[in-house]
Amino acid sequence: MFVSLIIVNYNTKNLTIDCLQSIYTNPPIGYNFEVFVVDNASTDGSPEAIAREFPQVQLITNKENLGFAAANNQAIKPARGKYILLLNSDTIVVNECLQIMLDFMENNPEVGAAGCKVVLPHGGLDKACKRSFPTPENSFYHAVGLSKLFPSSKRFGAYNCTYLDEDKVSEVDCLVGAFMMVRREVIEQVGMLDEKYFMYGEDIDWCYRIKKAGWKIVYYPKAKIVHYKGASSKKKKWKTVFEFHRAMFLFFNDHYKEKYNFIVRALVYGGISFKFLLAVVKNITAGFVGGKGEADNDQRKSSYPQ
């Protein structure tokens, strides 16, 4: 088996079916592949619909929502592929995307993980598909708006690597979990996704460990997918708001806490807490204004804010 594709589904029946259809319409020629769908206790009839329309898919059904990292790990364990591809349920594989990515990985054995160009439905780039690690410096420049004012600056635009040409092959720090192709030997070396991350940050953490182990991570825009990112209103689910900010704490504690002094650590923790409070206030306000709240049909969105 050459590549194992893994899709996590959580109440995204129609999106997942469209994603699967795009895979089987555009299979990688010359490469054997298998597809896993892990359902995180959906209530929209997803498992039954997927089993009916795609009996060749290996379906894993959970009795509770285990989160994105844990669900992917469930499929990684039995997967037989030389490569593991994490693919969001709300994506569409475009043309020869899988073929192009596998050819690239086969010809570049020093690359541990690679991601394609991820575009949004309106045609713009999903900026999370090529990024730097969220150091305190990068996060500060992004938070105060310097990354938007100077997107071509390598210093100020590092957060989403906006200084890099989106159509140029580039080595980056990390990719987005919506499309991430990883070598089996890399996973054997650095381990699987960290399950303490529920639905944000696990892709960044994985990339950090992959680069730390000496592997290259590459953004390869010659292949492309479309990322719908779910439909949402201004109000977000409390779980979404909480897990997003919790992931910031987790990543900083895991990889940066010991690299910075007390003052920087205090500023980081204070900044995350303040940002969380602002998000809570915004969420409450949106609830009064919008009423219904989030129509979230995406198990996990980008691990960075847009």
The CATH class name of the largest domain reads Alpha Beta
User: What global shape is seen?
Assistant: globular
Q: What are the secondary-structure elements, in order, as H or E? A: EHEHEHEEHEHHEEHHEHH
**CATH-defined architecture of the largest domain:** Alpha-Beta Complex
Main pleated-sheet profile: 9 strands, mixed
Helical amount: 25-40%
Q: Which runs of at least 5 residues are low in confidence (pLDDT < 50)? A: 231-235, 290-306
Q: Treating each run of at least 4 consecutive H or I residues as one helix, how many helices?
A: 10
Fraction of residues in β-strands: 15-25%
CATH topology of the largest domain: Spore Coat Polysaccharide Biosynthesis Protein SpsA, Chain A
Distance between the termini: 36 Å
Question: Can you tell me about this structure?
Answer:
The structure is a single chain. It is built from 10 helices and 9 strands. The chain has 306 residues and is of the alpha/beta class. The protein folds into 3 domains: 3-130 and 166-227, Spore Coat Polysaccharide Biosynthesis Protein SpsA, Chain A (Alpha-Beta Complex); 136-164, no CATH class; 238-290. Strands 1, 2, 3, 4, 5, 6, 7, 8 and 9 form a 9-stranded mixed sheet that branches. Strand 1, helix 1 (13-25) and strand 2 form a beta-alpha-beta unit. Helix 1 packs parallel to helix 2 (46-53).
